[in-house]
Amino acid sequence: MSATTTGHQTDEAPDGPGSAPNSIVKIVFASLVGTAVEWYDFFLYGSAAALVFGTLFFPSSDPITGTLLAFGTYALGFVARPLGGVIFGHYGDKVGRKKMLVVALFLMGAATVAIGLLPTYASIGVAAPILLLVCRLVQGFAVGGEWGGAVLMAAEHGKDEHRGFWSSFPQAGVPLGNLLATGVLWVLAFFQSESTFEAWGWRIPFLLSAVLVFIGLWVRMSLEDSQVFKEAKAELSGVDRPHLPIMEVLRSYPREIAIAMGMRLAENISYYLFTIVVITYVKEYLDASTDVVLTALLIGAAFQFFLIPALGALSDKVGRRPLYLTGAVGVGVWGFVFFGLIDSLDQGQVLLAVVVGLFFHSLMYAPQAAFFSELFGTSVRYTGASVGYQLASIFAGALAPIIALQLLGDASEKNTIAVSIYLASASVLTVVAVLCAHETSGSSLRHDRVLEDS
């Protein structure tokens, strides 16, 4: 394309100012709702793995080993995410973002409801964890295709100078999904005994997913693809060679993929330590009720839901890199404070640990959608953003709970410093990646090396 990366769009919605079918508010709302449903389903598994899956699906192991095995199936969901990113990205760059988002949401909902209906090990033996694994793989595949499409629907429809703000709303769908998942579990824990929850209560939040998915599908079906994408698709139709997004993004944007992966490390690892591992830490290592940490996570998710759009807007003013660097350094330092506050089991200190951790995380996560969208050209943007984002998840979020529990060691001699060093190391790598990236705030999305080379 002939447009440079420093140009500016003039319309808030590319189909024209005030375009009703594709108004930016409607698009952002649809992206937020769909993303929240997807991540409600995904986080629900992580919380259930920490609370009950070790006992129900791996009963022959001791509690910590059983939880490790449950987190093993949890991690496999991350392994499937890059595959989902590649396949959904490929077709999203070829046939459109909207269609693939609908498919992703449907698959996620089907897998989550299926988990809620699964018989346990006590009923069908080894087939139970195998079926759980299959459902988790489908979840990972679906969420791998969700993120790139959702953020691009917002990024490609808004003004260049407001992209950080609008693109941050799909990001806010993540804490909203976590808020919903944690909230449902908190309500169940409040009204049910531990034995009742383990017997059948844990199934309720998974089955509730069917209602949320229906709402998300209804909203997403009314969307249209952006004018930026339509222009790129029309230009590609005049090119003789076949359009193979994964090959083209690897050939034209290898540096950007590496930068995106590096930027994900501290962000992704810190989030799962602060929201998932902490549940297991309180339950198994401190031998305490999870009520105090679930309450803190509930408040923290609500705080982050409102914080992310505010920081997204700030990134439009001061740039993506300053916020990202501050967040990366912040989580690296906070990791050394976090576990000491959790050890107190005091509601105020636990809340402080979670909220400050999520604040530093948000400094990275809020500008991330716009940042990643601006790194890649339109014809491979879905694939490039998804691959960079999801491939890093294998080395970051997927392994974070497993590595953290291994580093913590035995419950009687827990080694929290080792986990803090692990997080700090990831922070250093993320800082290097951000320093290697150019500032992209305010740049146009009408750029594409693939089309220029063709």
Describe the 3D structure:
By secondary structure, the protein is mainly alpha-helical. It has a single domain (about 25-225, about 240-454), classed as Growth Hormone, Chain: A (Up-down Bundle). Helix content is about 80%, strand content about 0%. The protein is built from 18 helices and no strands. It has helices spanning about 25-55, 65-95, 95-115, 120-125, 125-155, 165-190, 195-200, 205-220, 225-235, 245-250, 255-285, 290-320, 320-345, 345-375, 380-400, 400-410, 415-435, 450-454. The longest helix is centred in the N-terminal third of the chain and has 34 residues, at about 25-55. The model is unreliable at about 1-10 and about 15-20 (pLDDT under 50). It is a multi-pass membrane protein. GO terms for molecular function: transmembrane transporter activity. This is Putative MFS transporter. InterPro entries: MFS_dom (IPR020846), MFS_sugar_transport-like (IPR005828), MFS_trans_sf (IPR036259), Sugar_transporter_CS (IPR005829). It is found in: Cell membrane.
